[in-house]
Structure formats: structure tokens, C-alpha cells
Design a protein that fits this description.
The chain is α/β, with parallel strands linked by helices and about 675 residues long. The strands form seven sheets. The chain has a six-stranded mixed sheet, sandwiched between helices. A four-stranded antiparallel sheet has the order 18-17-20-21, with no helix packed on it. A three-stranded antiparallel sheet has the order 5-6-7.
């Protein structure tokens, strides 16, 4: 694996501050935005010397930067990811040639990011998917010529961005091939902003020295999007600013051995790539604009925050280098759950210099008996459930927090108790407090994400849940809630991936199977959806009373994509059983298995007799079964269920359709009587 040379220890540079205030510009208009993020570290069939270290992580952190409200501001459901084994050739084709062309409109912003290998075969350049066969590159890789045609003629957007971090390994990509790959990337299409990791015959370096493990190009792209590239100080990162920032810093970091290249064709140089309204400063002019924080710590597993943004985890044996930081004062904080944090405190970066920062995590958070006794009492009330017990729990949790203002667990459970009382304002306040006390408290972020999901703030929920799984990838509950959030945003492929990860971590998570089934059904994968609904029903086959005691985290938004109900007003267990049987009914009906579909819809109504959607679907199933086999009894049954739809939900589109069915049924029955 290629390693970059170490940067010189000292540089003869002079820092000159420009006292001219940054030019004030209006808040930019962020167009509707879509992105595809691809990262492949380990390939299915490549030899060990061809495997990479960090593209998977690069892709995940690019995703985080894009959906951040302080960076890319892309709606989470509009950013699709293909990471590791998911980045197959078939999936790449589907995302690039079907999804992006189908959603992007002329006034939109589209970004494509790729981190992995590129290859040459027969004089043509290809991007390597996870399942590439080196013996048959043309048939098993994605042609860059096709990529250029798709971007240039099939994706209609005013702003198009291509970020590519390829040509990583000299052992697997010869110099001549690297030259052709890099040139091909630049020549794809003159109407887009194309920023490539290297030029000519250069290779792209990756190392743990950049932010704990990144490709050097991607590391600086991320830092740039987070605001370090904003040299004008207006909170906006433009295409020109990002290109200059990445080019300057990658050259410096690699001793000029890697030179990112941008194509300045006909793209708008003021193209907005990121916007952070809270990040404004007086612009500076320096002979070298950027410096480096070198973070050391006395304890393993310390999460580092720079200006409120997580930079990853540092261990005592391996300092965390954060190069590419704009000169001036920055806020540094080190946190470790269960200990008092170090900071936040201000540290100053000087241009062209390394600034050592020592984080010391020494003081264990000790709870006085007043705090722990109050918390334990509140927890006993909380675990009993019911409104009056939640109210008592709030009082005790707040007493614990008053006794110890740094008791993050008390803040979390105060928030949960308020959420159970449907007091969203106070719940929000205490969730934020728990995270403020312990920024690396993944459980608090996951629970907060659940509440945000419940109240319909899906983008904020996804950001919190994404932060939780980045910190704690094995947190199955956060993956499960991500699957719910993506399903609610109708981002079904992302929902499916999140649900599968939740199930991989905890195969017995019934609700993850439920949401996998929902998203499969709504992407017309009916056979597999039926299998997952059945699995949910098997795993949740207990008495309703037990189901009511389970902590489902989310209440109002858990059920029925597109269904207008407040699940908190019904028994949660019965509602989910009803929904699962409805899903089985709908899937079977889509496969023309109407007899089976009828039985599933009947079972759905056993759990929820007043579900208008199940009545409507059952009426349709009886009608379709009549068309196949005849029988006036089937029509009469269909009419009864359509009547129920009109009674239960007269203002829905299903009711309008039910009226037409009733008219047709009445006409058929009248004709039979003549």
C-alpha cells in the first residue's frame, strides 16, 4: 500500500493577517440535491496486494458531510451509498443509469463520489466495482466512457460534481494506466466540476496519518466541505474554493507527489458545494494558508471534536493528525463516556505549522448518593410504564440531574420520560442536554433520533442515528431506526440496507424484519417481503400484554408507510401484527394469489377491525377472486368491505375507489337478478 512521505518538521513561512472584513454575501440558494457515494476497500477477487484500507470509511464520512446541516445540506434520502460488497456492477449501473437520471431535474445539484480502483483494458478506462474480474475487465467493470455519457447527456442538472479517489496502489495499477485513468476522468464532460485525486502517472496515497485513516484526497475533500475551504469567510464552500483547498493541501501533505486536478470547463466557479451559516470569519491571506493539529491523549478511545464536529477517535499509542485547518482560534474537546471531558477549549492554528494538543482524560465522573438514589427511584417508576409513573419518573430524574448537572444518563431518561408523556419540547431539551454532556453518548443520539423520527423530523433523525452508528457500528437499534427513517422518506434501498445490517447484528430483532419487509414490498420484491413479514410474525408471537411493555423507541411513526394513523392510540403489538398481515395480503395479491391474500387481510382485521386500508384491500381481493372463479357471495363480501371503507375513512382516495367498486358490483348483482 502506498504511503506518503512525511511532511518536513519545520517550514520558513510568514503569517500575514488581512484586516479587511470578509465580503458579505446573501445566504445562498441550495438547489435540490442528489448524490451517489461509492467506496470499496476490499474487493471480492483481487489479491491481497490489491486490497485497500480506507475507501469504505472515506465513503461513510463523505456521506456524513453531505447530509450535514453544517456542510453539504443534501437531504439524507437523496444520498445513496454503495459501500463494500454493495458496490456491485449491477448496483452501480442501476444507481448511475436509472436512479440519478430519473430524479435529477435541470435546476438540481448532482454529486458522484467514487473511492476505489480504476483499471485499463483494451485502451479504455474503467471504474472497478466490488465484483470485478481482472480476467474480464470490460464485462465486469464500469466504463468511464459510459460514465461520461450518463453525466453529460442523461443526468440533467445545472450543477454536476464528480469526485474520484482512485489509482490507489502502484502494485496493481501501472503508471501508464494511472495516466490514462486520470486523464479520462478529466475528459468525461466539460460541463461538470470534476475533481480527481491525482494526475498523469501519479498514485493516490492513503494512510492512518490523515484524520486517523483516509485517502489523503478524500480527507481534504471532507475537511473542505466542513468549512476549511471557505477562504472568503462567508460560510459557503464553492467549487473553486474546494478545488484550491484540496489541491494545495494534498500537494503539501505528499511532498508534491500527488496533485489533485480539477477540470475548469464550463462549470460555474461559484457552484455551492457546502454551506455552514454558523461558520463566518475574517478572511486571511498567508504564504501557506493551513496548519495541522496533532492530538495526543493519555487514554484509548477518546473522541475528538473540532469546532463541534467529530474528528474520530484517538488512542494513546497513535496521535491523531488533523491537517488542513484554517489559521486562527478553534475549539477542541476530548470526550470519553464516564469521564469528565477535556475542554472545550480554544487552541490556535498557525499557517504551515504543527500545533500539538494534549488531551487528558483523568477524572472519573462520580455520582453522589443523592443523584444515584434519585435516578434509581425514577428508573423504577419509568420501567412500570403508564402516564402517572412517567410523571413521577420525570421528577426523580430531574432531582438526580440537579444533584449532578453532568449526569448524562439522568438527562437521557428525563428526555425519554417526557417523550413517553408526549411532551416533545422538554424531551428535545433533555436529549440535547444529554448529548451536550457526553457528545459520544451513542445511546442518547439513537434515542433522540427515535423521537425526531416519531415527530416527523426525518432528516435530523437520520443525522443523529448516522452519528450513533459511526461511533458504535454494532448498535443494532440505531440501524433499525435508520431503516424506519429511510422508509418514511421513501428511500427504500437505503432502508433495506440499514434493516439488513440491523438483522445481521441481531437476527432476533423482529421490528427490523418488519421494516425490511415493508421496504421490500414497496420496491415490488413481493416474494422476499412475504418471507420477512412471516419472520416478523414468528419473532413477535407473544401475548399483546407483553408487547405493550416493550420499548419500541418510536411510537407515532413506526407503522404503515403512507398510512394515516396515530399508533400511540392503539395497542402497539396489535398494530404491528395487523400491518404485517396487511403486507402479506398486499404482496400475495400483487402476485395474483388472491385466496391466500384474502386470508391474510382477514387476519389483519382480527388485530385491527377498523383499518380502512385492510378493508379496501380485502374488497379488491374478493372482486379479483370473483373475476377468476365467479360466485355472487364473493361480490357481496367485497361490497361489505367497501362499505366499511366509506364508513371508516370517507375522505381518502381509497373511499373514492370503493364507491366505484360498489357501483360496478351493484350493476353486476342487479343484472344477475334480471
Amino acid at each position: 500500500m502506498a504511503q506518503a512521505p512525511q511532511a518536513p518538521a519545520t517550514r520558513d513561512l510568514r503569517y500575514e493577517k488581512d484586516t479587511t472584513a470578509a465580503v458579505s454575501r446573501p445566504v445562498p440558494s441550495i438547489p435540490r440535491s442528489y448524490a451517489l457515494v461509492i467506496g470499496i476497500s476490499r474487493y471480492k477477487t483481487l489479491p491481497e496486494e490489491g486490497q485497500l484500507q480506507f475507501p469504505d470509511r472515506d465513503a461513510r464520512e463523505i456521506y456524513t458531510a453531505l447530509i450535514s446541516a453544517e456542510a453539504g445540506q443534501f437531504p439524507a434520502e437523496n444520498v445513496h451509498t454503495l459501500i463494500g460488497p454493495a458496490a456491485t456492477l449491477a448496483n452501480m449501473r442501476n444507481e448511475l443509469e436509472t436512479w440519478l437520471p430519473s430524479v435529477a431535474k435541470p435546476d438540481d445539484r448532482v454529486l458522484i463520489y467514487f473511492a476505489g480502483h480504476g483499471f485499463i483494458s483494451g485502451g479504455k478506462a474503467y471504474l472497478a466495482p466490488y465484483d470485478i474480474d481482472r480476467q474480464n475487465i470490460p464485462a465486469t467493470s464500469y466504463p468511464m466512457e459510459t460514465l461520461g455519457n450518463v453525466i453529460g447527456s442523461r443526468i440533467h442538472a445545472k450543477w454536476k460534481v464528480l469526485l474520484t479517489d482512485s489509482c490507489h496502489s502502484g502494485a496493481i495499477t501501472p503508471e501508464a494506466d494511472r495516466q490514462q485513468i486520470n486523464q479520462t476522468l478529466l475528459d468525461l464532460n466539460r460541463s461538470l466540476f470534476s475533481l480527481t485525486a491525482s494526475r498523469d502517472r501519479e498514485q493516490s496515497f492513503e494512510s492512518a496519518q490523515w484524520g486517523g485513516g483516509h485517502g489523503v484526497f478524500t480527507y481534504y475533500v471532507i475537511k473542505g466541505l466542513q468549512g476549511e475551504a471557505d477562504t472568503s469567510g462567508d460560510g459557503v464552500v464553492t467549487a473553486d474554493e474546494l478545488a484550491e483547498y484540496v489541491h494545495t493541501n494534498v500537494r503539501d501533505a505528499t511532498g508534491q507527489r500527488q496533485n489533485p486536478t480539477s477540470e475548469r470547463g464550463s462549470f460555474d466557479p461559484d457552484m455551492v458545494l457546502a454551506f455552514n451559516p454558523g461558520r463566518t470569519h475574517v478572511s486571511t491571506k498567508t504564504s501557506s494558508q493551513f496548519g495541522t493539529f496533532v492530538i495526543e491523549t493519555n487514554r484509548d478511545g477518546v473522541e475528538v471534536f473540532l469546532d463541534g464536529i467529530s474528528q474520530g477517535v484517538v488512542n494513546k499509542a497513535a496521535p491523531l493528525r488533523l491537517p488542513g485547518i484554517a489559521p486562527g482560534a478553534h475549539t477542541i474537546q476530548g470526550v470519553h463516556l464516564g469521564y469528565e471531558p477535556d475542554g472545550p477549549r480554544q487552541e490556535t492554528i498557525y499557517p504551515g505549522q504543527d500545533t500539538a494538543v494534549s488531551i487528558r482524560i483523568n477524572i472519573v465522573r462520580r455520582r453522589g448518593s443523592a443523584a444515584t438514589d434519585a435516578f434509581d427511584k425514577g428508573l423504577a417508576y419509568y420501567n412500570k410504564g403508564a402516564k402517572e409513573n412517567y410523571a413521577h419518573a420525570v421528577e426523580d430524574f430531574r432531582r438526580a440531574l440537579n444533584a449532578d448537572p453532568n449526569y448524562s444518563q439522568a438527562a437521557l431518561y428525563t428526555a425519554r420520560a417526557y417523550n413517553a408523556l408526549f411532551d416533545e419540547e422538554n424531551a428535545d431539551k433533555y436529549f440535547r442536554r444529554a448529548i451536550e454532556i457526553d457528545p459520544d453518548y451513542s445511546e442518547a443520539r439513537a434515542s433522540y433520533g427515535g423521537m425526531l423520527l416519531d415527530r416527523g423530523d426525518f432528516d435530523s433523525a437520520i443525522r443523529q442515528l448516522n452519528a450513533a452508528v459511526q461511533k458504535e457500528p454494532s448498535m443494532a437499534m440505531a440501524w433499525y431506526l435508520l431503516s424506519v427513517a429511510f422508509a418514511r422518506k421513501e428511500a427504500y434501498p437505503e432502508s433495506i440496507r440499514a434493516a439488513r445490517e440491523a438483522i445481521r447484528l441481531t437476527p432476533g430483532n423482529a421490528e427490523a424484519h418488519f421494516w425490511l419487509a415493508e421496504s421490500l414490498r414497496l420496491t415490488k420484491n413481493w416474494q422476499e417481503s412475504m418471507s420477512e413479514y412471516r419472520r416478523y410474525l414468528e419473532l413477535s408471537d407473544f401475548e399483546s400484554g407483553l408487547g405493550g411493555k416493550l420499548d419500541y423507541y418510536v411510537i407515532g411513526s413506526l407503522f404503515g408507510v403512507g398510512r394515516k394513523k396515530r399508533a400511540a392510540q392503539v395497542d402497539i403489538w396489535r398494530e404491528m401484527r395487523s400491518e404485517a398481515n396487511f403486507g402479506l395480503c398486499d404482496s400475495a395479491a400483487q402476485m395474483k394469489q388472491f385466496t391466500e391474500a384474502i386470508s391474510f387481510c382477514q387476519q389483519a382485521l382480527v388485530y385491527d377491525p377498523k383499518d380502512p386500508f385492510a378493508h379496501y384491500r380485502l374488497g379488491v381481493n374478493y372482486s379479483e377472486q370473483y373475476n377468476l372463479s365467479g360466485g355472487a357471495g364473493l361480490l357481496a363480501a367485497a361490497r361489505r368491505h367497501f362499505d366499511e371503507v366509506l364508513t371508516l375513512s370517507p375522505d381518502t382516495s381509497e373511499a373514492e375507489k370503493a364507491k366505484k367498486y360498489i357501483g360496478n358490483i351493484d350493476a353486476v348483482l342487479a343484472a344477475k337478478q334480471r
